[in-house]
Design brief:
Blueprint lengths: L4 E2 L6 E9 L3 E8 L9 E7 L5
Antiparallel strand pairs: 1-2, 2-3, 3-4
C-alpha cells in the first residue's frame, strides 16, 4: 500500500495510480487529484517496504 504524497506544483493530494513491486520496495506512480486547477502533475517514487527497515 502506497504512503501517499502531496503535489509539488499545487500542494494538493496525490493518489497512487500504479504500484510495481520489487524485492526491496516498490515503485509508486502518483497523480495529482486537483481538478479545479487542471494540475496533471505526475511523480514516480521508490518506497521501501515498512517491515524491512
Amino acid at each position: 500500500m502506497a504512503k501517499g504524497l502531496t503535489c509539488r506544483v499545487c500542494g494538493y493530494f496525490m493518489y497512487a495510480e500504479r504500484e510495481d513491486d520489487q524485492p526491496e520496495g516498490r515503485w509508486v506512480y502518483y497523480v495529482c487529484q486537483n481538478r479545479q486547477k487542471q494540475c496533471r502533475n505526475r511523480q514516480k517514487v521508490f518506497e521501501e517496504y515498512a517491515d524491512r527497515r
